[in-house]
Each structure stands twice: as structure tokens, then as C-alpha cells.
Amino acid sequence: xxxxxxxxxxxxxxxxxxxxxxxxxxxxxxxxxxxxxxxxxxxxxxxxxxxxxxxxxxxxxxxxxxxxxxxxxxxxxxxxxxxxxxxxxxxxxxxxxxxxxxxxxxxxxxxxxxxxxxxxxxxxxxxxxxxxxxxxxxxxxxxxxxxxxxxxxxxxxxxxxxxxxxxxxxxxxxxxxxxxxxxxxxxxxxxxxxxxxxxxxxxxxxxxxxxxxxxxxxxxxxxxxxxxxxxxxxxxxxxxxxxxxxxxxxxxxxxxxxxxxxxxxxxxxxxxxxxxxxxxxxxxxxxxxxxxxxxxxxxxxxxxxxxxxxxxxxxxxx
Length: 318
Prior knowledge:
The protein has 318 residues and is an alpha+beta fold. It has two domains: 54-161, no CATH class; 180-317, Sandwich (Immunoglobulin-like).
């Protein structure tokens, strides 16, 4: 192909391309042939007053719109007491399934927020009830600030009723905490009414070992254990162990405790045969209990527990 023919061919191609482009740009698009948009089929469900899909509503948005602007104010919920509304994370951890510090007269509430339940969430009660405990104690307190507008109350209610989701959109399940063990009294008599005089080795140090006189052949150790789902009377295992070693109870002596109620109070009592234990040696105690919901028994004091709890739970025969 000579130069003349090549130029003619290139010109023809160029003309055809331009014609096609001009035609495409000037052609009226038929709406009936517009491709279907698959996003139009997504059902967003109900939305809050702020236009947020409820299944996307998290503590981050609630914190941004309400908690950070109306609650995390000087003298209020800024970390000096719970709930702590300084960040979305602190808000969530001190609200959802967080035990309350103050209850109403009827003792109706347990947690600050229970997912999917505004009726049992004390947060919702506090922002809607004028008189939770005293007059004008609605939050934000009527005597301090202006109550939340309905839009903010509805946002909090929507968050709670749609799972009280964390910043990642997860819904938390109710925790099952281990039992909490605490000593009540040492050395009570066989009728559980008369208390022996408990003297510490060093009277100036209240957590030093207590003294069991050599003349005492047996005494009782009384404990209390509380659990968030199981009553003390239904706790199992219930063993008090005594060891000459502070952190080694592998070969400790073991004594079964039983539930006992008297005088409107109740506790777990173990009989200690003192005469069978070594004299003039510090003896350390640990209590073991099970709520039936954890793979291992709960013990206290633990190896990692600070030392003065361990010495408080110890005695010496002399």
C-alpha cells in the first residue's frame, strides 16, 4: 500500500470513529434499558430519628450524638465515677451488663443496660423517670442541666432495643462471673453463736495471722460466697484447705464446709480440728467453691492475690 492509500485509510478510520462518538453522545438514553441497580434491592429496615439503620446503630454513634455532649461534662461522667462516658469504649464497658451502684426503693434493677430491654435497663429509667430515688434526680439531673430531648432519648432506646451494640456492631451476652469469696468470722463455737476472741499475731497489723490457743481442740471457720446467678445455698464443692505453704495447696488438708443460716444471716461453715494441725507454724487457708458454670473451682486467696489477703487468711497455734 502506497503512502496515498495509507493516508486515505487512516482518514476513513478517523472519520468513522468520530461519527460513532458523536452519535453516542447525542443519542437519547431509553430509561427502559438502564441496567438494574442491585443496591436498590437492599432493605434497610427501620431507621432512627437520625437516619441511621438500626442494625448499624452502635455505641459509637450514641456516644457522638448524646453521651459526649450531654453526659461527659465537668463534674459529671468524666471518669471520676461510673458510668464513664469519656470514650465509646468506656461508655460501653460501664453500661452494658455493668452492675449498678444505686437502685430504687423496689430494688428493681441489676444492670445499667440490658440489650433488647429498656424496661430493665437503669440507663433508660434514669433518663426518663423524674424521681428514680429522690425528687428531680432524672439524668441529666433536672437541678443541674436540661433533660434530654425526645430525639436523644429515642436514640438511646433504639440502641438498647436493637442489641446495645459495641463499636464493632456486636451484641454482648450476659456474663457469668465467678463466685466472690470473703471471710466472715473466725473461731465460732459449736452452737455457731458464741464467738472466740480473735487475736492477731501483731495487733498493729490487722492482716497478720490470728492465734489459735493450743488449748482449743477444734474451731469453726465461717465464709461467705456470692454469685450473680447461683444462691450461696446452691453453691457446690465448698472446701476449705489448709497448708503450711503460702502458695502450694497440692497436699493441703481439706475440710468440707456446709451452708448454715441463723439469725437472719447465712454463711458457709467448716470445722477445723486444730489439735491435728502443727503448732508454732503459720498455716495458710484457701476456700474453694463452684457455681456449676465454670470449668474450674473458684479459689480465694489465689496465688496471684496480694500478700496481705494470704496472711489475713492464716493462723498459728501457740
